[in-house]
Design goal:
The structure is a single chain. The chain is mainly beta and 983 residues long. Among the domains are: 18-97, Immunoglobulin-like, CATH 2.60.40; 291-329 and 404-451, no CATH class. It is built from 12 helices and 50 strands. β5 (69-72) and β6 (79-81) form a beta hairpin.
């Protein structure tokens, strides 16, 4: 059974003449299940006498009388013993459970021995204990080099940012492909997952997107207020996961073709074992409360500052009420996670069945999420040559926390001199009579949390069925069909408000959006595995895949409900369909991968895939993505074995390959699409083009070079993985100017090029190993640098409609900050100071001059970090285990838009203000970074100092975060028996 596993070749030692008497010893080496082990090194200590076992585990060796034989094989404990006078000497080796590199890993449509992998990939083993409500992407933070994970707005079930080896596309999705048991799952891009929380005033779904994907690198303030980006991975039960493989370089990902340019994450769920049934029950409880509360003004401080700003306008701001709105809408959230599973089997069938219920509370009041998960994985050996199986999961999720981040935002900004309740106990709505002006949307955040309804129901089924035929020992033929069926219903109901504020706030209205997505995939593969004389192996897979998707969405809107108890849109007096549409795409592919290993020293691999996508015109429909890799296990060379015995395993590898990117939207990017206009002409609506067609639209293409090493030293006390990569992406989609007579100002074209380079390191050190104590440290470190090589004809682009003002220019990285430079406050006048590009400092804001506003901006750092990674420490003592996980990020910069809002006092919204406003300039000579209330940068009602296009709110996004601290105790069976739980 171990015949095809990796083995060491015989040690090549210098021939020495011995004057001792020798005897011939023969025998068989087997494992604990009495299966013969091939490739075991057998040598006599202190001599050049050496050999290795054959395919049947047999060996023959010349041994000096009284000599000691050593039996060594990676993955097994080394065995030393003197045969004495025995000429027949059989040995049984015990498996080394602490050795992690010998295992087989999933690499896409097949498995390979880990030690023979020549592509760049990482494996993550999730701990059995997981936080309630935690999604898979957050659990991967700090666990693998080259993988950057960042939480988005913190809302329950919201999308997070997960990027592998940097940004792979400017306009497209930068999230990796997720494959669960061979089924690519739906929706990791913003366009597929953005839901409206406005209540019917804007569309509640999108068929396409032009941003940078789920948990995007950019945001828009309107989208934060009015949309929720759901996380499709939230429907996956982490307790069902057996292993996670992260494919990074072109050789590892090429087998997935056009979906692999941003990396691939392969998720394998648990299977049953042919042994007695095992029942596992888990219960977890967690507590969550926001830390690091943003300091804002009290009601009296608020009233004082606004009264100072409006001394003679007739506006009134009363003192005497001090409401902490953030405290009013937050709580200590208590979450529960319960799961149970049973697995087992016989020689004919094995099974894994699991159930899970998760009840997760948000720290924002009246916001929570419940999910129900069920899974069944079955495998049946119906004959000696044939097996069948199925992997199916069902999830039902109720998310009542879509507006949690919005409510928190409203609470931060709402006037603190306004009470929550009237004297009779009713909610107080609006800001009068306490303030003359105020933030209309924040009429009462507590009432919003309790009275408004904003929910998402997700029903999802993911699974596949397969049949596998093994007509001969070296060949496996497999056919499988899989599906991902996702039905979602988003419902938003705005409560009826008093007439005094109803005219300016959307209320007494509701919207409902139903989305139905169905993905079907069919794979047919032939896996082969040959062993040649001389310990050479040929392993590979050839196959074809067909994938198609149907997507449908429909939104309805209703207003003027007779009663707040009436919920459905059908009960509204006025109702209409606001949007409806469907799309369909298909992908047809053929692929192959061949790996050849010669004497466990020299490894060669080749992968090729041909993709055909319906999204392109027929002249650009098909694209080929080949890749090749080589590896050299230096540790198998005789000179290393002889002179560097402290090296257990050392392999260098390299690869080059091509990847591709399908169109960034879910509809046909090459064709013009049409929608019904909202403007009537002659009393009738008319069709208008929503997307300009481009028959020359082509694939985004990436070439990747990767060089790395995998090494194990000092009796497996140190494991090291290093990688260097270079990725160049060409023909990226980017907006290009087109003649205005076409009816458009811009069209997406394949005109941009970009590169990513980086290094990755993973170091695992066992620094303590005694009978009772154990210490293990794992360090993951990644560095990525990005550079745009080509853009449109102008060579740069600035999206002024995007509130983060990312700047793209040839020679610079993506997501640069392009800002006006804030120079502080003039201590003599209290006026803001601005640094112009000519080197002068002025009190006039450069943004006020629209003729040369951009001319006085500078690139002031990049949003993407330079270094990031994780540090895990584990200390064990007998049955106790203490684990800490630290994650870190260095080199990135961010705009603190929240603080910018809380320093804004000139608008009619009259936001609550940051505590720093108490430092405002009030007298000549005062040293402060907060200007006078009335200054030269306030023009009309606009304060240029509070704009997010200045360096005033530019901050470092560096962090060192304690992500996990866990103390566990494993009770031994002997202790359990003493308690009476086991008999």
């Amino acid at each position: 059974m171990k015949k095809f596993l990796s083995s060491l070749l015989a040690l090549v030692l210098t021939t020495v003449t011995w004057a001792q008497v020798q005897v011939t010893v023969t025998g068989t080496v087997t494992d604990e299940k009495d299966q013969p082990i091939a490739g075991v090194v057998v040598f006599e200590e202190g001599t050049p006498n050496a050999t290795y076992t054959d395919g049947d585990g047999k060996y023959t060796i010349k041994l000096n009388v009284g000599g000691i034989l050593t039996f060594s094989m990676i993955g097994y404990e080394t065995h030393k013993e003197a045969p004495g006078n025995r000429s027949l000497f059989n040995v049984k080796l015990r498996e080394d459970t602490g050795f992690r590199l010998l295992e087989s890993v999933v690499t896409g449509y097949s498995t390979q021995d880990r030690r023979n992998i020549t592509g760049a990939m990482s494996s993550v083993k999730l701990r059995e204990e997981k936080s309630a409500g935690a999604s898979l992407d957050l659990l991967l933070a700090g666990q693998a080099p080259g993988v950057f994970v960042s939480a988005s707005n913190g809302g329950l079930g919201s999308a997070n940012l997960l990027v592998i080896r940097g940004v792979s596309s400017i306009m497209g999705d930068n999230n990796p492909l997720y494959v669960i048991d061979g089924v690519p799952i739906y929706g990791t891009d913003r366009g597929s997952n953005s839901l409206s929380t406005h209540g019917g005033a804007i569309n509640a779904f999108a068929m396409g997107s032009m941003t940078t994907g789920g948990g995007s690198l950019q945001y828009n303030s309107d989208m934060i207020d009015q949309t929720f980006e759901k996380n499709p991975l939230a429907t996956l039960n982490p307790d069902d996961i057996e292993s996670i493989e992260i494919l990074k370089d072109a050789y590892a990902t090429a087998i997935y073709g056009s979906r692999g340019s941003a990396g691939v994450i392969l998720i394998t769920t648990k299977k049953g074992a042919r042994e007695a049934s095992q029942v596992t029950v888990n219960y977890g409880i967690s507590f969550d409360r926001p830390m690091g509360k943003i300091p804002t003004l009290t009601g009296d401080e608020y009233a004082n500052i606004y009264s100072m700003y409006y001394p003679s306008t007739g506006y009134k701001f009363k003192s005497g009420v001090n409401t902490d709105w953030v405290d009013a809408i937050t709580r200590t959230a208590i979450s529960h996670n319960m799961s149970a599973s049973v697995n087992g089997g016989t020689d004919k069938i094995n099974y894994f069945i699991s159930l899970r219920y998760s009840d997760t509370d948000s720290y924002v009041i009246n916001n929570d999420m419940q999910s129900y998960n069920a899974r069944i994985n079955l495998t049946s050996q119906i004959s000696r040559y044939m097996s069948v199986g199925a992997n199916m999961s069902m999830t039902k999720m109720y998310n009542h926390a879509l507006e949690a981040s919005k409510i928190y935002n409203l609470a931060l900004k709402n006037a603190p001199n306004v009470p929550i309740y009237e004297e009779n106990g009713d909610y107080h709505y609006g800001f009068g009579p306490y303030n003359s002006i105020g933030y209309v949307d924040a009429y009462n955040p507590v009432a919003s949390a309790y009275d408004n309804i904003c929910t998402l129901q997700d029903t999802r089924a993911v699974g596949n069925i397969y049949a596998e035929l093994k007509p001969v020992k070296w060949l496996a033929l497999k056919s499988e069909i899989g599906m991902d069926l996702n039905n979602s219903v988003t419902y938003t109901k705005k409560s009826e408000l008093p007439e005094s504020i109803a005219a300016s706030i959307p209320n007494n209205q509701a919207s409902e959006t139903t989305g139905n997505n169905f993905r079907f995939v069919s794979n047919n593969t032939a896996n082969f595995n040959f062993e040649f004389p001389g310990k050479s192996f040929l392993q590979g897979v050839i196959g074809e895949s067909y994938e198609t998707s149907d997507e449908y969405a429909c939104s309805v809107y209703g207003s003027d409900f007779f009663s707040p108890q009436l919920i459905g849109v059908g009960a509204a007096q006025n109702k209409r369909v606001t949007n409806a549409g469907s799309s369909k795409w298909a992908l047809l592919s053929a692929f192959s991968r061949i790996n050849y290993t010669h004497h466990q020293k020299y490894i060669l691999g080749f992968t090729h895939r041909l993709d055909g996508s319906s999204r392109y015109n027929r002249n650009h429909r098909f694209l080929s993505t080949p890749s090749v890799s080589v590896g050299w296990r230096i540790s198998e060379e005789p000179f290393v074995r002889k002179h560097m015995p402290w090296i257990d395993d050392f392999k260098v590898r390299g690869s080059i390959g091509w990847q591709s990117k399908d169109a960034y939207n879910s509809y046909y990017g090459a064709q013009a699409t049409y929608v019904l206009s909202n403007i009537a002409y002659g009393g009738n609506a008319y069709l208008k083009t929503s997307q300009p067609g481009n028959v020359n639209l082509d694939w985004e293409k990436t070439i990747t070079y990767d060089a790395g090493l995998d090494a194990i030293f000092w009796d497996r006390r140190v494991e090291l993985t290093l990688d260097w990569y270079y990725r160049k992406t060409v023909d990226m989609l980017f907006g290009s100017d087109v003649p205005a007579y076409t009816g458009y100002t811009s069209q997406d074209q394949n005109i941009a090029d970009m590169r990513n380079t980086g290094i990755e390191m993973r170091l695992v050190a066992t620094w303590l190993r005694t009978r009772n104590w154990g210490g293990l440290t794992t360090v993951n470190l990644s560095r990525n640098t990005n550079k745009i090589l080509k853009l449109n004809l102008a060579g740069d682009q600035l999206d002024q409609m995007n509130s983060t003002f990312k700047y793209y220019t040839v020679g610079g990285p993506v997501a640069q900050w392009y800002l006006h430079q804030w120079a502080g406050v003039d201590p003599d006048t209290g006026n803001p100071l601005w640094l112009y590009n000519d080197g002068t400092t002025r009190t006039t804001p450069p943004a006020a001059d629209w003729t040369d506003s951009n001319g006085n901006k500078k690139v002031m750092g990049v949003a993407i970090p330079t270094f990031y990674g994780g540090l895990t420490n584990t200390l064990t003592y007998k049955g106790f285990e203490l684990t800490t996980l630290l994650t870190f990020s260095v080199g990135g910069r961010m705009i603190n838009a929240t603080k910018a809002d809380l320093m804004t006092y000139t608008s009619s919204n009259a936001y609550n203000l940051h505590k720093d406003m108490l430092k405002l300039w009030q007298m000549k000579g005062q040293q402060t970074d907060v200007p006078a209330l009335k200054n030269t940068s306030i023009i009309g009602n606009y304060d240029y100092t509070s704009a997010v296009t200045t360096t005033r709110y530019l901050e470092s996004s560096d962090y060192l975060r304690l992500k996990n601290l866990e103390l566990a105790w494993s009770m031994s069976p002997e202790t359990l028996k003493k308690t009476g739980f086991l008999t």
